[in-house]
Design brief:
The complex is a heterodimer of chains A (233) and B (257).
Chain A lengths: L2 H7 L2 H5 L1 H33 L4 H15 L3 H20 L7 H26 L3 H9 L4 H31 L11 H12 L2 H32 L4
Chain B lengths: L6 E10 L2 E11 L4 E5 L6 H8 L7 E6 L2 E2 L2 E3 L5 E3 L2 H8 L2 E4 L11 H11 L5 H14 L15 H13 L5 E5 L7 H16 L4 E4 L3 H7 L2 E6 L2 E6 L1 H6 L4 H8 L4
Parallel strand pairs in B: 3-10, 3-11, 8-9, 9-10
Antiparallel strand pairs in B: 1-2, 1-4, 4-5, 6-7, 11-12
Helix pairs in contact in B: 3-4, 3-5, 4-5, 5-6
The chains are: A mainly alpha (233), B alpha/beta (257).
Amino acid sequence: MSDALKQSLDLSMFWEYRAILLQGLIFNALVFLCAASVALSVGLGAALLRINRFWPMRWIGTLHVEVFRNAPDYIMLVWVHFVLPLLIGMVIRRRVEFHPFVSAVIALGFVYSGYFAEAFRAGIQAIPQGNLDAGRAFGMSERLILWRITLPQVVRRMLPEALNLFISMFKATTIVSLIAVPDLMYNVSMVIQQEMRPLPLYTGAAITYFLIILLLSSGVRVFSERWRRKILA
Amino acid sequence: MNDVPRIRIADIHKSFGPLEVLRGVSFDVHRGSVVSVVGASGSGKSTLLRCVNHLEPPDSGEIFIEGESLGSRVDERGQRRPRSLAEINAMRRELGVVFQQFNLWPHMTVLGNVIEAPIRVRKMPRKDAIAYGEECLRRVKMIDKANEYPARLSGGQQQRAAIARALAMRPKAMLFDEATSSLDPELTDEVLGVMRELAADGTTMIVVTHEMGFAREVSDRVIFLHQGVIEEEGAPADIFDAPKSERLRQFLSKYRK
């Protein structure tokens, strides 16, 4: 085996720095959770606009989806962190700066809201009209129908796709080190600068991500399938 | 005051684009009576029923529930104005609807389906809603399936659950929209049996149906709809044994084969 390969498979250094690396991983998890909340709520809002009766609303919803779905997350992150504060500052005539964590949550949350909007829209449109008729016939308001009849079914239907989106989203949190959010990758590069041995550290990070995503996603898949099967004949 | 009909349907017109589906339909349904609406496919029967609770707002004409118009009200200044959606919702809950496709909510158990509207719309305490919901399920002989999800039930069982769901709102009248049309023949009887019992208990009902035997046996009045107007109406014996119009005779002959 070549030296380089041997070196990259030797994870003792990764283990040695486990405390600081774990700290970074917690940041990944935090960014992920916050960005996922933003993506879900903004995505639902955009989906409701996309199916609105009034065309200007539909147009705004479509614009939202197209802009954020087609923007690379890497560029969006840089743009939100460096350009957006300037624009806001210009409007309110004051110096504005975003905390890197905030920029990361906004950028990832909005990019993925475009994808979630489409998943929500498809799910909502797949609900049989009769389900809604029944709600209306019993005097339920449109809001009640959305929360009690439509969304609970949409969530079950879109789970497989949502799971894929969450996985991509978690992987995308690796780029937040770019704007100095102290996540796993950021801490890895700090250690690399000190130790000058990038290969084992990158390998360790890769294995860590792989294991976490594999474990969480298979857990969620098992749970969600059992839940879904109850309602889908 | 008892001569105020439970439901009065007054000169209902409804078009979909250029197609005029209902061209002035009027009749009354009195308390405790069963009115069956029969007619060929496309005669406007289902649209009529959807107009009765404003799932399809009629283009003109009015629906009255115990003398009160469903679509409009008189305001403080004595002027008639259209009701808001919230007001229509409040009136709609007085009518229990049973759909051809059952339309149970698949993510709720049978009991969940039955108690949903009483709790959320009627604001009934959960405990009371469950107690009354179970009573309704017992009436349609579905109490042993209370905790099943609709996907695991036969069509007949789903439809009986849907009837219990409508009953649980304690409606002033029940509307049946071809309640047995999407059932296999061997499942039709269990649903018709439940409907027969409801009628015997004095439930006010409008029944859109293709089951001529049922209409004849259970109804107080039968209405034959043809191309959006009432072609003939009367007591079941008159309609089925002594039809006056040629169209009704033709229609009935198809069921006598």
